[in-house]
Amino acid sequence: MAKFTRTDVVAASEETAGPDVFARLQQRVQEIRQMFRREPVTPTAMYQFEKDLKTVFDQAACQILDEEVNDVEPADKQQTAPRVRFHKATYRINKRTKATIATSFGDITVWSYYYLNEEDGEPGLHPLHMRLGIVAGTTPVLAERAARWAVDHSQREVRQLLAAEHGLHWSNDRLRRVLREFRRLAVAFRAEVQAERLLQWLADAERSRGRHRPVLAVGRDGVMVPMRAGGAYQEASAGTVSVYDRRKKRLGTVYLGQMPESHQVTMTAELTALVKAVLNGWTGPDPRLVYVTDKGQAQDDYYRRVLKQMRHPRHPNRRLEWEWVLDFFHAAGYVGKLSEALFGKSSKEGQRWYGRMRHWLRDRDQGVTQVLRSATQHFNRRRLSKAAEEEFWKAYRYLRNHSRLMDYARYRRQGLPIGSGVTEAACKTVFTQRIKRSGMRWGNEFGQVIVDLRVIYLSGIWDEVIRRDLRSRPQPQNIQRNGSDKPQTLKTSKKAA
C-alpha cells in the first residue's frame, strides 16, 4: 500500500491549521482508499471513490479555512486596535460577535470585533469582514461563483447548484443580496476595462495588414422584455462597440444593456461615455467611425443629438465624421415587400426579381435608386389590388426616404460593416437567452443586476473586472493606542501586540 504523503504546500500550512486536521484527513483518506480496494473495480465504485475523496478534502479545507480566518484577529480585546478609520470616519471597538460565513467549502463561523461609528446613528462595521473581502456574508470566491452561475441560470437553478456543489441552502432573498452586492462592486470597473479592451483591439487593428483603415463601429437596438408591472412587455436597450481590422475582420465587441426606462437615457449616457473614453485614449491615426442600426426613434435621436455633434478629442474645433449605415438586411426586407406587392407571395418571378434587386442594392453604386426604378417600371405594367398597392408605396417611400443611408457599395469599398447583426445578436445574448424564458417576469432593479452581470461576462472582461475590484477595495486603518494612524493589517497589529 502506498504511503500517504503531503505536498509542500499542505505541510507548510500545518503550523497554522493544526496537526489534527491533517491527521484526520490522512486517516479518512486511508479508509476511503482501503474501501475502494476491497470492492471490485466498477464504474459505480470509481464514482463513489472520487465523490468520497472530494467530500473529505472539502471538509478538511473548510476546517483549515475556519481556523485560519479566526486566527487573523486577536481574541484579546487589549491586543486589538481600539479604533479604526474608514472613509474619513472613526470607529471604536465594541464587542466580539460571531457570524456564519458561506464559503466554497460550506459554512464557517467567524468571530470578529464589531466597531461602532463615533457619529451617533451611523452604522458600524466589522474590519475583519472587510479585510477578508466578505460580500453579504459570502467569501469572494463563492460570491463570484454564484454570480457566474446567475449569468446563465435562473434563481432556482443557481440555488440547486449551490446545494449540490457546496452544500449551501440559500433562500431567494439571500441569493439576491449576494448578487446585488457583487454586481455593485464589479460594475464600477466595467466601463474602464471595456475601454481598455477596445483600445487594445484598435492597436491590433492598426498593426494588421490589409487595404482598409481600421473601423470603430457603434450600434444600439431595442428588445421587448416581460415586466412584472402590469404583466406587459416593455422595450429594453442594447448597445455595442466593435473594432474591425484592415481586412474587415471583427476583432471583438463589448456590450451594454439597460432594462426599460423612459427615453433610454442611461443607455445613451453609458454608450456615449464609452465611445468618448476610447476616442480620448486613442493616440494613433483616426479609425473610420460608423454607426450601424435599424431605424427607430432612439437610434435616430442618438445619431443626431450625440454622434453628429461629437468633437474630435485632439481637434476640438472639428466634428468627428460618423458614417450612419442603415442595416442592409433591414433595407432588403423592404425590397422583399416590394416583391410581394408586385408579384405576390411565393411567386418564382418575384423571388428571381428580389434576388437580383438585393444584389443591385448591395453591390451597385446608387443601387437603391436602380431598385426603385425597376420597381416603378413593374408597377406601371401591372394592376395591383388596393392592399398590394398600399404595401408597395409604403415600402417604396421607406427606401426612397432613407436612400442616403444605403450607399452599400461605397461602404463595402471602405471596409465598413453594412449589417447590424452584431447589435441584434446582443439583444439575443444579453436579454432573450436569459431574461425572456418561459414564465419569467422581471422587476427593473433586479433585472438590471442580471443584465449587468451578463454584459461583463459577454464582453470578455469578467476576470479582469473581478481582479480590479478585489485589489481596489478600501481597507480600514488601525488607530493604535498611542494615537498613531497606520494602515497596518490585523496580523501585523497582532504580532506587534
Termini Cα gap? 48 Å
Please count the helical segments.
Answer: 19
Low-pLDDT windows of residues:
1-17, 489-497
Per CATH, the architecture of the largest domain is 2-Layer Sandwich
Q: Biggest sheet: strands side by side, in what order? A: 3-2-1-9-10
The CATH class name of the largest domain reads Alpha Beta
Overall pLDDT score: 91
What structural class do helix, strand and pairing data support?
alpha+beta
When the domains are counted, the total is: 4
Radius of gyration of CA atoms, rounded to a whole number: 31 Å
Shape: elongated
Helicity range: 40-55%
Number of strands: 10
N-to-C SSE string, H for helix and E for strand: HHHEEEHHHHHEEEHEHEHHHHHHHHEEH
Q: Explain this structure to me?
A:
Strand 7 (288-293), helix 10 and strand 8 (322-326) form a beta-alpha-beta unit. Strands 3-2-1-9-10 form a five-stranded antiparallel beta sheet. It starts with 7 loop residues before the first helix and ends with a helix. The chain is an alpha+beta fold and 497 residues long. It has four domains: 8-71; 77-187 and 474-492, no CATH class; 192-327 and 442-463, Nucleotidyltransferase, domain 5, CATH 3.30.420; 329-405, no CATH class. The protein has helices at residues 8-17, 19-38, 43-70, 127-132, 140-152, 155-166, 172-187, 190-207, 265-281, 297-307, 328-343, 348-363, 367-380, 386-401, 408-413, 421-435, 444-458, 462-472, 490-496; strands at 83-86, 89-103, 106-117, 215-226, 233-244, 250-258, 288-293, 322-326, 477-479, 485-486.
Topology, element by element:
Elements: H1 8-17, H2 19-38, H3 43-70, E1 83-86, E2 89-103, E3 106-117, H4 127-132, H5 140-152, H6 155-166, H7 172-187, H8 190-207, E4 215-226, E5 233-244, E6 250-258, H9 265-281, E7 288-293, H10 297-307, E8 322-326, H11 328-343, H12 348-363, H13 367-380, H14 386-401, H15 408-413, H16 421-435, H17 444-458, H18 462-472, E9 477-479, E10 485-486, H19 490-496
Parallel strand pairs: 4-7, 7-8
Antiparallel strand pairs: 1-2, 1-9, 2-3, 4-5, 5-6, 9-10
Helix pairs in contact: 2-3, 5-7, 5-17, 7-17, 8-9, 11-12, 11-13, 11-14, 12-13, 16-17
